[in-house]
Amino acid sequence: MNNEIALSVICITYNQSKYIRDAIDSMLSQITTFSYEIIIHDDASTDGTREIIKEYYDNNREKIVAIIEDENQYSQNIDFITNLYKNVARGKYIALCEGDDFWLDEKKLQIQFEAMETHPECDMCACWGCTVTEDGKNEISQIRPQKRNGFLNTEEVILGGGQYLVTAGLFFRKNLYDVKMDFEKVMSLDYVQQIRGSLRGGIYYIDRKMAAYRRNASGSWSLRVLKQKDNLKKQWEKEKEMLNVLDKETDGKYHDTISLRLKSYTTFVEQLSQHKDEIIDALSSLKGSRYVWGMGRRGEEFEEFCYNEGIHIDGFCDLANEHVGETTIYGNKVFDSNDVQNLADNILASNEFAYNDIKKSEFKGNVVNLQRFMPYG
After folding, report:
1. pLDDT score for 122
2. Looking at the domain covering 2-229, what would its CATH class be?
3. What is the fold of 268-373?
4. Is this model's pTM higher than 0.90 or not?
């Protein structure tokens, strides 16, 4: 094996002591024909994460670079991530795995390395990923833009949004960050990275499940932003600004796509309200019990819409089964997903992924795809 560092794995952590071992173990288990380093940046954790990182560093000094901050950089708006990419990473390539995510395939880095070497015309590759429960044991959904290997163009990436690809599956050329484009200066987010990585020759996608995103992990971005409406609104304003800068910087090349994407910053409740009569007609034709499948943002905002419109729902569930027996803020009981398949006459699938999975299952009742009433986002 060549001792020259070919790849730098970047792992960002903050208060992830419950998950960090899974992340680091999956990085260390990689089988490669090239040398790689693991750069772990801890942003002043207070829950024991830094002590775990030090333990791994002491036992793997030839592989791990540990950067442990005494003061939180994120809260000071310090762009430490770009510094890691440009000034700390020694590899020709960079792979990402945040401290609450993990990899599923010990050949992941080798497969992506070979793909990038084979396709010098592109700057980034990605892989099939999945969303898992907080304990990492059960899959909830798939992050799979297509069912074949091949290129994803910039238009697809812009329309897909930040959850189009799993962040722990991103693998890109370090020189992508030699020059920062104006739209990248607006905000630092994996959605921005994906757009940037697609601009030269598209993103090469590998249809092999190799990375996992842990849903509702403590301290995660999704809990801090997606679950708090005020924070989400601020996030959306920054994303819209970023897309408008991208539109100007690329001389309108993606103007139609960007205009379409900007529609996604309409809340799901607002989108549902636009289809109010159609939804009421569709639900009124259903006979028997109705259960909503999916407790992400689409499911939550559909429940709010139903509450506002006086539409009856018999209960909620999703594959995570994390809140079985509890009651939602609107008074609906949460059921086990297996029980719902036996109890329900009708399942209202909150998104297209859930709809397709239920249609393929042994469920004999009626399935409604709610995403057709809230297509953007």
Report:
1. 97
2. alpha beta
3. Rossmann fold (3.40.50)
4. no
